[in-house]
Amino acid sequence: SYVLTQPPSMSVAPGQTARITCGGKNIGRKTVHWYQQKPGQAPVLVVYDDSDRPSGIPERFSGSNSGNTATLTISRVEAGDEADYYCQVWDSSSDHGVFGGGAKLTVL
Amino acid sequence: QVQLVESGGGLVKPGGSLRLSCAASGFTFSDYYMSWIRQAPGKGLQWVSYIYSSGGTIYYADSVKGRFTISRDNAQNSLYLQMNSLRAEDTAVYYCARASLDSRGYDAFDYWGQGTLVTVSS
């Protein structure tokens, strides 16, 4: 089955840029979506189709996908960005949805 | 506004059954693919099942295939998950989620319910 690998945690100072990675075999050939989840809340879609943003999501959130790594970039990080971030793809070879293990972003 | 409200969670013994419901409002339910996604306490997200808008095509995670059944009633704007032969490892918050029509593969989930907790324990 297809596996997505994320770093368990990372930290960044306010105003800096956070880059959260999602590794998978030839993930660049797939379409990647990203979710933000704050404690006690349901996930929120922040980037879909590798780099598109749903309405209402700040431009500070952007995505890229190439080779074996997809990346969610959060520019000018704010305290309110502290959350767990999950990448997700659809594995068409198995017709299964797949989530990464999640990355906890701490804002220092 | 789009709303998804899950219900039906609770405490059940191993081997027991439970039926989850998800009431949808604020959009044309019959136009959208839907999914169930779960999250064990303190753990990450796990995709469970996916159903096309007509209900004609359905997919399951290997861990629940043969035990869980997803269904929908477009006339009632409702999504269901029948869970049989429950195990301790099925303990989780279960979310229903709408698949975005904006995403190329209709496989990004743009709206989620608040979740319902299923606890499997003796």
Furnish the topology, listing elements before pairings.
The complex is a heterodimer of chains A (108) and B (122).
Chain A: E1 9-12, E2 18-23, E3 33-37, E4 44-47, E5 61-66, E6 69-74, E7 83-91, E8 96-99, E9 103-107
Parallel strand pairs in A: 1-9
Antiparallel strand pairs in A: 2-6, 3-4, 3-7, 5-6, 7-8, 7-9
Chain B: E1 3-7, E2 10-12, E3 18-25, E4 34-39, E5 45-51, E6 58-60, E7 68-73, E8 78-83, E9 92-99, E10 109-112, E11 116-120
Parallel strand pairs in B: 2-11
Antiparallel strand pairs in B: 1-3, 3-8, 4-5, 4-9, 5-6, 7-8, 9-10, 9-11
Plain-language structure description:
- The complex is a heterodimer of chains A (108) and B (122).
- Chain A has 108 residues and is mainly β.
- Helix content of chain A is 0%, strand content 45%.
- Chain A contains no helices and nine strands.
- In chain A, a hairpin with a 4-residue loop joins β7 and β8.
- The model of chain A has no long low-confidence stretch (mean pLDDT 97).
- Chain B is mainly β.
- In chain B, 0% of the residues lie in helices and 50% in strands.
- The radius of gyration of chain B is 14 Å and the shape is globular.
- Chain B starts with a strand and ends with a strand.
- The model of chain B has no long low-confidence stretch (mean pLDDT 96).
- Chains A and B meet through β3, β7 and β8 of A and β5 and β10 of B.
Report the radius of gyration of chain A as a whole number of Å.
Answer: 13 Å
| Helix content percent band of chain B | under 10%
Beginning-to-end CA distance, first to last residue of chain A = 36 Å
Number of helices of chain A: 0
Radius of gyration computed on alpha carbons of chain B: 14 Å
- Overall SS class of chain A: mainly beta
What kind of oligomer do you see?
Answer: heterodimer
Helix and strand content put the structural class of chain B at mainly beta
The arrangement of helices and strands of chain A along the chain is: EEEEEEEEE
Number of strands of chain B: 11
Number of strands of chain A: 9
Runs of chain A in which pLDDT lies below 50 for 5 or more consecutive residues are: none
Which strand-content bin applies to the residues of chain B? Answer: over 45%
Shape of chain B: globular
